[in-house]
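Notes, Module 5: Reading structure tokens.

Key idea: the token line is not a picture. It is a compressed description, and you learn to read it the same way you learned to read a sequence, by spotting repeated patterns. We will look at two proteins. The first is printed below with its tokens.
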Amino acid sequence: MKNRVESVTGAEIVSAEALSSGASGEATAVTLADGRRLVVKTSRSRGTPDPGDASPSGLALEGWMLAYLAERSDLPVPRVHLAEPDLLVMDRVPGRTGARGDAELDAAEHLARLHSVTSDRFGLERDTLIGGLPQSNAERDSWIEFFRDERLLDLSRQCVNAGQAPPKLLDRVRRLGDKLPRLIDEPDAPALLHGDVWGGNVLSDGGRVTGFIDPAIYYGHPEIELAFTALFSTFTQGFYDRYHQLRPIRNGFFEERADLYNLYPLLVHTRLFGGSYLAQVERTLSRYGV
């Protein structure tokens, strides 16, 4: 790893410090002889991968997603120097996790601009990852169909196949899918989404956001991104007020649609951790009468 990092950066590593690991691998903060600070991720897969681990190409895909965001938006993301299946080298972004006060207003402005980047179809040219799990992005012309098939049904199958949910979950999700045209709408256009915005993936410093990390990108309805931020209280009301000034949030989002959209991250967490997350999924399904 050391030789490859020094080769791609053209500078010697003078110090290294282990960072907390995640689904995509082990992370190390390194400092180069010329003063640059980087984060180096290495795959931790050995033999048969753990079901929650990223695929063997996960680090290359993470780097591809960061580069995609950098090329198509002004969202602050780490600059990628090398992205290969077992090694990701990128700039270390200053700041701490989370955003409050002026920083969450800055986050609202960044995400509102990101959601103004649009495409012709929902999904993406390739599948991505969320939390190390495969995320299907088969392109669709309809958001309702995409959300039903590539988000709710796909993750429900993953949960059932992994033994993290009973088979009847799929039947309930299918019945919910039949109701979706009455519960959610089609957005004006498919919007580019970070896909995994929660406190741990937002870095801030001095009243501004310095970086959005660990994306799970695709083109979808901006409401699913906003719903995810509400699930784990990533931001306070100030964030939503500022976002609403820039991109109005339709009536009924918080009261009705946020819980529906949050079935997706809850299914992701059910697949990864099971337990109480499955209970939350089942309560939400009951709320919508299935």
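Here is the second protein, with the sequence above and the tokens below, as before.
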Amino acid sequence: MLRRTLWVAVVVGCCALPTRAVLIAYDGFNYPPSSNLGGQNGGSGFSTPWALGVAATVAAGSLSSGALQTTGNSVFTQAPTESLNRTLNFTLGTPGTSAYFSFLVQSPTTPDPNLSYGLGLLGTIDNLFIGKASFPPANSQYVLERFHGPGQVSSGVTAVAGATVLLVVHADFTAGNDTFRLYVNPTPGGSEPATANAVKNDFDFGTFNAVQINGTATYLFDELRIGTTYADAFAIPEPGIGLLTLGLLPLVRRGRLSAKRRSQA
């Protein structure tokens, strides 16, 4: 009877939970303000801390973009800066799969056309840069490109001083060239736009398990999300069904042991 009651509790509890997007990696940069980002190990979905040796500090408060929910603080990098890597605890890029990436960026001053800022995806065959470019012809706009400018595809959206921008990328992986779609400032909670601001499908990315806060400018970076659905690009990590089930499993095991002891008495 106890075993049956516990399993009913598991089922009812799981069913009572609302359906939510499930992030596979997230960092809201909930670290002490003014601390160096290098060595910080918060968030979820990562196997290593942020790499050391980068002039990046934690800024108090989150960047804001419409109705997007945020947590923690943000990252401030001051030129000249380096790139900051972090390894994920999973690998993406298997042919036939998709992934979504999103983050916030802002240039506090008039963006320098010769300096860049954004996110790098480090693949086994090639790398992708998502952000404000530093190479012509679109070096004042948000783009998709291979590192250092090759194959640049512009969104047509120009970076503006003090304007926080939400960048969302939909990646479709294949055995050949992969497809990346960039959405600039999509509405949080809405449907995936029918048309992307930029599409890049001229190279094979391979697989990857590392990201890079990538830039040479002075800029702010925040709210890094990785998921497998468009809704994940705007989600906040919360305890889900897995956590509830794991929490109840010890009770279920104890119930089984009690039942076994009674049957042996």
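Summary for the second protein:
- Residues 241-264 form the longest helix (24 residues).
- The helical segments are 2-16, 241-264.
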